[in-house]
Design brief:
The chain is of the alpha/beta class. The protein folds into two domains: about 140 residues, 3-Layer(aba) Sandwich (Rossmann fold), CATH 3.40.50.1860; about 110 residues, Rossmann fold (3-Layer(aba) Sandwich), CATH 3.40.50.1860. The chain has twelve helices and ten strands. Strand 9, helix 12 and strand 10 form a beta-alpha-beta unit. Helix 1 crosses helix 11, helix 5 runs parallel beside helix 7 and helix 9 crosses helix 10.
Length: about 270
């Protein structure tokens, strides 16, 4: 048994969907989650700055004596995967976890990736997918309006603002006959209903948060690191009251959690 916590971080609240998936798979694990809301969004930032921020985020979460880190940020996972891989603890990034899930699938046909501007600009997801599944064509589309919509409470499938944004961004994927859509930002699982409604019920959605949580579970099992008491400790560089208001939405339940404030770091 290893009672050290699992560390999770993201640029904002979307990483809580990975926490939600972890709690369902591993209810006994203690979790430390850091939301760098004071510096969000990460998507428009240049890659050099993102890589510095990745080092800072890893260091902060690692300082809590964690046994594994889940980088629940597609932007950092695609722009700093080498830094995640070099960290001296088991570290899961949503990019590798999601690509493995697609590579293992027997499905064929075009793939669509939707993600932040920086994730799409990096090309890392597409390169990894082309290497893993050279038989499938991948198209990537940045969807910068999704995160602010979700964080302002617009996420229901029949919400007109969400439906309009989904149609605007996803039309090219529907025209290409995409059969698999990768949700490359951990926020996007919350609008899966709107995405599925526009793309069609038979289109498979691959959720980066769920894939990363499953990979984290497998790593904990393979390293013999399971154990804990099911506690949740949260840190944010943003407003703790705003963070607390977002917890039920992103976790899907009212979970007792310790919420701490941490200073905004220099990017």
């Amino acid at each position: 048994m290893d009672h050290r916590p699992v560390g999770v971080f993201d640029s904002g609240y979307g990483g809580l969907t990975a926490v939600r998936a972890l709690r369902r798979l591993l209810p006994e694990e203690d979790i430390v989650f850091f939301a760098d809301a004071g510096r969000a969004p990460y998507g428009p930032r240049p890659v050099e700055q993102l890589r510095r921020m990745a080092v800072q985020d890893l260091s902060l979460v690692g300082s809590f004596g964690v046994k594994l880190i889940l980088a629940a940020c597609g932007t950092l996972s695609s722009n700093a995967s080498d830094l995640l891989g070099a960290y001296p603890l088991p570290c899961v990034g949503v990019l590798d976890a999601t690509v493995r899930a697609v590579a293992a699938s027997p499905e064929s046909g075009p793939i669509g990736l939707i993600a932040t501007e920086a994730t799409v600009r990096s090309g890392a997801f597409v390169r990894a997918l082309e290497k893993a599944r050279p038989d499938r064509v991948c198209t990537s589309i940045a969807c910068p309006d999704f995160v602010p919509l979700i964080e302002s409470g617009h996420f229901e499938a029949d919400d007109p603002a969400v439906a309009e944004a989904a149609a605007r961004y996803l039309q090219p994927l529907r025209e290409q006959g995409v059969r698999t859509v990768l949700l490359g930002c951990t926020h996007y699982g919350l609008i899966a209903g709107a995405i599925r409604r526009f793309m069609g019920e038979d289109v498979r959605l691959v959720d980066a948060a769920a894939c990363a949580a499953e990979t984290a579970r497998d790593l904990l099992d393979s390293h013999g690191l399971r154990g804990g008491h099911g506690t949740l400790r949260c840190l944010t560089s943003g407003d703790p009251e705003v963070f607390a208001a977002h917890l039920p939405l992103f976790l899907g339940e009212n979970v007792p959690a310790e919420i701490l404030s941490t200073p905004i770091m220099e990017a």
